[in-house]
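Q: Give me the 3D complex with fe (ii) ion.
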Amino acid sequence: MTDSTHTEAPLGVLFMAYGGPESLEDMPGYLADIRAGRVTTQAVLDEITNNYRQIGGKSPLPEFTRAQVEATMQELQARVQRPLKAYIGMRHWNPWIEDAVREMLDDGITQAVAIVLAPHYSSMSVAKYQKKIKAGLSMNHGHIDFEFVNEYHTESGYVTALANRVREGIAAFPEGERDDVHVILSAHSLPVRILREGDPYADQLHESARLIAAAAGLRDDQWSWSYQSAGRSPEPWLGPQLDEHLHDLSGKGIRKVVSVPVGFVSDHVEILFDIDIAAQETAAELGMTLVRPPALNTDPLFIGTLASVLERKVAALS
Ligand SMILES: C=CC1=C(C)c2cc3[nH]c(cc4nc(cc5[nH]c(cc1n2)c(C)c5CCC(=O)O)C(CCC(=O)O)=C4C)c(C)c3C=C
Ligand SMILES: [Fe+2]
Ligand SMILES: [Fe+2]
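A: Here is the predicted complex, encoded as structure tokens.
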């Protein structure tokens, strides 16, 4: 006998990511969306366009997102009885979250789970993606029962995968030098005002960092925290920024560094330019060697984490 309650539409699985330009021509529109109506000067546009030019003229984020979604869906569908259908929605570019929601409604989806490809919750990140789902529903006068994954920054697969990256980075140095290697764990900065607003972002990042450092077996003096990629706006942003942090470490005599960003789950401009080009340049000027292991991308431990947190939300809907 078949289960008659779940025979109609599949359960939707909405994966959301930041979005990235597919060519340099997309840059003005992409930046206008990120900067939400604030004027982008020609100088800022030129600078960011040039950053993208140096990483190949487009963002690799959409491609990594599709690969992560495909791998996660394979694992999730193997664990869940109900038929599932995946959707991808981006916050700042095509395919937009609102369009993905419309597609879900057109497909007759009535129940769905949603996750952002960012492990830490903030009112300035994850909450904004979730608001776009609500906007998509109200724009299309539709209703879907959504279960949201808010965060997954302490999940063991995510922590272990990044601890493995830390170990890989240290192992890139000759055996006799590894004790002198310093590990910098970092994430995207946000305006300092989030602390006054009680936002959990900074605490969650520090919690992840402590867990990753412990799982990698680092001594307390062997690692430190840094923010990176602060936006170009006049208000103060959380620091220290990676560049000043490298100067600070250099002042303490550190010459060998492993850089592991913990808030990004795939390689994109904030890693490929901000670390691999800008921070590498600073490190070279300071006479430091900086190693940056690959981002999580489709690491099976990370994909297993996504499948696990989604599986729990699917169970909550069943
Ligand atoms: C936790 C918050 C943020 C994450 C994660 C994040 C990821 C991310 N950002 C870019 C590219 C750009 N971000 C820019 C500005 C910007 N980013 C955030 C927050 C996060 N970004 C904020 C709050 C801002 C400022 C927005 C504003 O009002 O000005 C920009 C614009 C240029 C700039 O200000 O630096 C770019 C480009 C990527 C690719 C990315 C990857 C997941
Ligand atoms: Fe951003
Ligand atoms: Fe950014």
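A quick observation: The CA atoms of residues 122 and 175 lie 40 Å apart.
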